[in-house]
């Protein structure tokens, strides 16, 4: 039996033994997109969010290595239930990525990963391999090689962008896993400017999909670089821009705006921090009928972020 098959069998066994489905919210009433194209994003929080005896610790009394495996199993199940065309992950430990990759490749996905550091955010096994905290991108269609990365920051303050030339059905697209810095607004604005410029250049020849944690809320000035409406100067629709439950900030009479469901929650503050900082941006000239769905896993969730899914149709 190959290593990939052994890993897949282990993950499948973990699903039944731990009854994980509900914790990522994948049984929510909005579980199915009504559009042809599907997108799935999650900031995993590596194994940083794991703490002994915390409510979200699925294996009380164990070390973080076991918890890494559990997170991988949950993600594979959630992706399998939704069947997205493109999947992106932020803050993924390399050991987590290996397990997820083995299972999703067995389901027909193609994968690429870029490490953004070693140790610290992941366990010693990751660090010893020279791989650590990073990001991943999966596609139902082949991913062009070699792996494509861009530094959105500077030499002193790098910020990695992972992209791939792939396709949605038969149409080529440029897809990227984005994670802008939380370190400072100045660095984030610099990175966002570079990202928007790259996206504009790519869009001269193909549709563009940007998915990830931008570490800024929709009405933050830096996000104007991406939205094509509501005061924005960018080229994108955002998956959850038409959710009427979050319309308080929309322009008068508008049917969409810079808003959407909560994608990040933390009880580290009082009151808890609740905000949207994860996005699925789709080039507006190419996509229509966008929709988004943020899934809350309840008290026993596995990250301070929520799974964020989107749908769209071709123009």
UniProtKB/TrEMBL annotation:
The keyword Signal applies. Keywords: Signal. Residues 69-305 form the Endonuclease/exonuclease/phosphatase domain. Gene3D superfamilies: Endonuclease/exonuclease/phosphatase. Pfam families: Exo_endo_phos. This is Endonuclease/exonuclease/phosphatase domain-containing protein. Residues 1-19 form the signal peptide. InterPro entries: Endo/exonu/phosph_ase_sf, Endo/exonuclease/phosphatase, GPI-anchor_lipid_remodeler.
């Amino acid at each position: 039996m190959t290593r990939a098959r052994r890993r897949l069998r282990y993950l499948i066994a973990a699903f039944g033994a731990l009854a994980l489905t509900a914790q990522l919210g994948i049984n929510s009433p909005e579980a199915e997109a009504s559009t042809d194209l599907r997108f799935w994003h999650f900031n995993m929080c590596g194994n940083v969010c794991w703490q002994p005896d915390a409510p979200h610790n699925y294996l009380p009394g164990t070390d973080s290595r076991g918890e890494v495996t559990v997170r991988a199993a949950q993600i594979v199940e959630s992706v399998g239930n939704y069947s997205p065309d493109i999947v992106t992950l932020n803050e993924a430990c390399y050991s987590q990525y290996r397990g997820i990759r083995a299972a999703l490749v067995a389901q027909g996905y193609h994968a690429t990963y870029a490490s953004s550091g070693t140790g610290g955010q992941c366990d010693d096994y990751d660090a010893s391999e020279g791989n650590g905290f990073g990001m991943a991108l999966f596609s139902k269609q082949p991913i062009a090689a070699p792996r494509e990365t861009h530094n959105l920051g500077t030499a002193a303050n790098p910020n990695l962008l992972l992209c791939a030339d792939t396709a949605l059905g038969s149409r080529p697209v440029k897809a990227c896993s984005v994670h802008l810095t939380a370190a400072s607004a100045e660095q984030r604005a610099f990175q966002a400017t570079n990202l928007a410029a790259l996206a504009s250049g790519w869009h001269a020849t193909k549709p563009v999909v940007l998915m990830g944690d931008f570490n800024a809320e929709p009405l933050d000035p830096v996000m104007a670089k991406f939205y094509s409406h509501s005061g924005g100067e960018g080229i994108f629709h955002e998956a959850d821009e038409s959710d009427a439950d979050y319309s308080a900030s929309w322009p008068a009479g508008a049917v969409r705006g810079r808003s959407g469901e909560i994608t990040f929650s933390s009880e580290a503050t009082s009151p808890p921090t609740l905000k949207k900082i994860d996005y699925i941006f789709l080039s507006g000239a190419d996509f229509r009928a966008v929709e988004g769905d943020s899934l809350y896993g309840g008290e026993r969730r596995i990250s301070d972020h929520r799974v964020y899914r989107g749908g769209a149709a071709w123009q």
